[in-house]
Amino acid sequence: MVYIVADNNLDPYVELDLQEMERVGSTENINTVALVDLLRVNGTVMYYIEKDSRVAVWGNWSSDFELNMGRPETLAWFINEAVTRYPAEHYVLVLWNHGDNWNGFGWDDTDHDYLTMEEIKQALSSVNVKIDILGFDACLMSSIEVAYTLSLTNKVDILVASEEYVPGYGWPYDKILGKLVENPGIAPEDFAEIIVEEYIGSYTRGSQGFSPYATLTAVKLDKAGEIVLHLRSLTRALLENIDEYRIPVKAASEKAERFWFGLWRQGPYIDLKDFLVELLKSRKDLETHIAHILSEWDSLVIARNSTRGPHASGVYGLTIYFPRNKQQFYQPEPYYESVPEFAEETGWHQLLRSILG
Fold it and tell me: What pLDDT, on the 0 to 100 scale, is given for residue 357?
């Protein structure tokens, strides 16, 4: 199931991805369905993807079928409709559009709306099925905040997303679907790993004519809660002695890999594991708190990869919000409102306030 929010400046890339899907198409074992909303024309259409063609099974290119893709009800309707029409043993949902980490996903320019993380949580919590893999063909969505928020739905097993930006060509759907058709009985964890490898391979090989920086991660969401508990323990220890820890915490955040690179490494997200490793180097007294997270990391992040480039050595799969200073992308109130459960459980927003002022 591919939820294509292209009622914005990504409209030109839709046809390329649909054609990639059509190169493989659906089979007796695999159904591929896409809900498409475009900028250049009114309307919304649900396509059943066949080999070398697509069939409209709902909607039309007219204002009568113009959906607001930024409403949680629209996302929930699409999932339930696709599952009802094409029941299966396993489900993959791909959210296709711009992503902005904890800020949300899916900007619909016609309706001036988008999906906040709380709205995505609301939509997924209301559906009648469990999603084996939720993939974001969207920038910056592989963060601990996003992973934990999705885990609270109890409706998603694996998150596949990027710490970094996603090039306009997005996922190589022909390569990914081709692997699934070859082995339709593949376990979801193994398929998630294939998605990661085919995505990175498509840019490493330069199949699109260039080799941009790219990252992708697969995360087991049932492990996110444990990481959050240990992160809360660390945050509390830091806050209790903030005058002692302020400088080493800030220094560790500066040494950690920072995303996204398109902002010349001024972006507000850092690799969480890289940050913890750097912090532990300077403050061995925090090992009790940090060691638990590091020891469980590989059971949380089950696959990760990146193209060669500035992030190749420091990409461990999940970012966390940590702006360089309060003048650059520091939005304490929106952050708390967007991921209130994570902020409250960990106290991370309080730590940022204490460090950044």
Answer: 82
How far apart, in whole angstroms, are the C-alpha atoms of residue 215 and residue 167?
A: 10
Closest CA to 315 of 306, 303, 302: 306
CA 201 to CA 272: how far, in whole Å?
24
∠ CA(60), CA(66), CA(71), 5° rounding? 130
**What helix, strand, coil percent values describe the chain, rounded to 5?**
45, 20, 35
> Which residues are registered as beta bridge partners of 220?
158
Strands (E) in 62-199, as ranges, are 92-96, 105-108, 113-115, 131-137, 156-161
CA dist., res. 147 & res. 222, Å (int):
9
Q: What is the Cα–Cα distance from 22 to 284, expressed in whole angstroms?
A: 54
Q: What string of DSSP letters covers 23-46?
A: HH---SS---EEEEEESSSS-EEE
Query: CA neighbours within 13 Å on the CB side: how many for 330?
Result: 16
DSSP 196: H
Query: Quick one: which H or E segment has residue 47?
Result: strand 44-50
96 upstream amide cis, omega within 30 of 0: no
Token code pair at residue 60: 């039309």
Asked if 125 and 153 touch (Cβ cutoff 8 Å), the reply is: yes
Q: What confidence score (pLDDT) does residue 10 get? A: 96
Cα 169 vs. chain centroid, distance in angstroms?
16
**Cα first-last separation, the chain:** 43
Site of tokens 């109130």: 333
As a whole number of angstroms, the distance between CA 200 and CA 194 comes to: 10
CA gap 101, 320 in Å, rounded: 9
Within 10 A of 325 (CB to CB), how many other CB atoms are there? 12
Q: What is the mean pLDDT of each run of 10 residues along the chain (357 residues)?
A: 97 97 98 98 98 98 97 98 98 98 97 98 97 98 98 98 93 98 97 96 67 88 97 98 97 92 77 97 96 96 83 81 93 97 97 95
Phi, psi (deg, nearest 5) at residue 130? -95, 135
Number of C-alpha atoms within 13 angstroms, CB side, residue 327? 0
